[in-house]
Design brief:
The protein is of the alpha/beta class. Helix content is 33%, strand content 19%. It has helices at 25-28, 31-46, 102-105, 119-124, 130-145, 155-162, and strands at residues 13-18, 50-56, 71-75, 86-89, 111-115, 149-152.
């Protein structure tokens, strides 16, 4: 993960992570949930000075891979922007019922967003109900208007997002 420069950065970087995606069966059983969990675990193991505060929709436990000394869990409603140096949103396009827009829930001046693909837009968005299509396009527009640093997990996705 590339982390934007933080003026007067503390010795330990505090990153709030929207980890709601792993609480939804459709996400945790597919690539985004696995990618998110193992990507964060790799960061936590390789950078013990980075403190990950993972926000979940319940008071449940972190996935086993994230049960590390520098990873903590908090309820999503307990997010406080002043308590972190950076916010990371690993699944900004999740449209599951009750999954409020991460860019609205986790407002912060320094935000990174992992963008996985534009598959729905490119291949089947028009088969979705009208409300879901509108919600999907709204999320894309929120990302476009934001100052968030867009991270892509492949060159293809990065090129597609730019196009």
């Amino acid at each position: 993960m590339l982390v934007p420069a933080v003026a007067n950065a503390p010795k330990s970087l505090r990153v709030a992570v929207d980890l709601r995606t792993v609480a939804y069966a459709d996400s945790s059983a597919r690539g985004i949930g696995h990618y998110t969990t193992h990507h964060l675990a790799a960061i936590a193991r390789r950078a013990p000075d980075v403190r990950l505060c993972c926000h979940l929709p319940t008071d449940g436990e972190l996935p086993a891979a994230l049960q590390l000394p520098n990873v903590t869990a908090r309820h999503v409603d307990d997010f406080v922007a002043a308590e972190c140096d950076l916010v990371h949103l690993p699944d900004p396009m999740n449209l599951a019922l009750g999954f409020d827009s991460p860019l609205r829930v986790f407002r912060h001046l320094r935000t990174t967003v992992t963008f996985h693909d534009l598959t729905p837009l490119r291949h089947y968005l028009d088969t979705w109900p009208d409300r879901t299509q509108v919600a999907y396009r709204d999320r894309l527009e929120q990302i476009r208007r934001s100052d968030a640093l867009l991270l892509c997990n492949s060159r293809f996705t990065a090129d597609d997002a730019v196009a």
